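Please decode residue identities from the backbone states below.
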């Protein structure tokens, strides 16, 4: 997840060196989405590069802000999802999850280590493998049952507007794309600052 740690830092160093060799000055920040208004733990490395040294120095990364939104300020539990998103009450998965849900205000997921529960109303990192391994999709208890969050809810936890719609693609692809995207509000803030600098 953190580019600076991938392959013991070699990947990041190569990117840094390649940009430097092309006469770019770079700045970077390691940011967790939950520190920028989105209730999801998603730590990513954001890199900006300028060919002008002074402009690079003028660039200011967005400041961290207190989290005001809870998972369920974004996911509405009073709206019934399509039946396919709910666990079959006769299934082993349902029974295991039902026993594990001790706090309905948190989000859960199956993992290699059993069932995990989120903390402080903040979602786990949404991952691209949700499209490959369906049991990696986070699970909630809403007013109608226990089930996975929907692809649109995944996008909402990435900061996408509710008006955004997927094209007509398989649901596995929806999950993969929603787990492989960037956090929109962070990119918006970075983009606005870049525009301010180069305008």
């Amino acid at each position: 997840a953190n580019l600076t740690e991938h392959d013991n830092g070699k990947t990041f160093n190569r990117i840094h060196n390649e940009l430097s060799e092309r006469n770019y000055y770079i700045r970077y920040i390691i940011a967790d989405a939950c520190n920028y208004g989105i209730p999801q733990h998603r730590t990513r490395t954001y890199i900006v590069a300028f060919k002008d040294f002074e402009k690079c120095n003028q660039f200011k990364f967005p400041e961290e802000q207190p989290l005001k939104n809870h998972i369920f300020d974004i996911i509405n539990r009073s709206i019934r999802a399509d039946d396919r998103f709910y666990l079959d009450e006769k299934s082993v998965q349902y029974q295991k999850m039902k026993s594990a849900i001790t706090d309905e205000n948190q989000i859960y997921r199956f993992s290699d280590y059993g069932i995990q529960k989120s903390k402080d109303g903040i979602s786990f990192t949404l991952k691209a493998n949700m499209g490959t391994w369906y049991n990696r999709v986070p699970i909630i208890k809403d007013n109608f049952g226990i089930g996975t969050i929907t692809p649109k809810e995944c996008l909402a936890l990435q900061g996408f507007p509710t008006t955004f719609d997927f094209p007509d693609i398989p649901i596995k692809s929806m999950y993969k794309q929603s787990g492989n995207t960037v956090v929109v509000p962070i990119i918006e803030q970075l983009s606005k600052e870049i525009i301010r600098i180069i305008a």
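Observation: The two ends are 32 Å apart (CA to CA).
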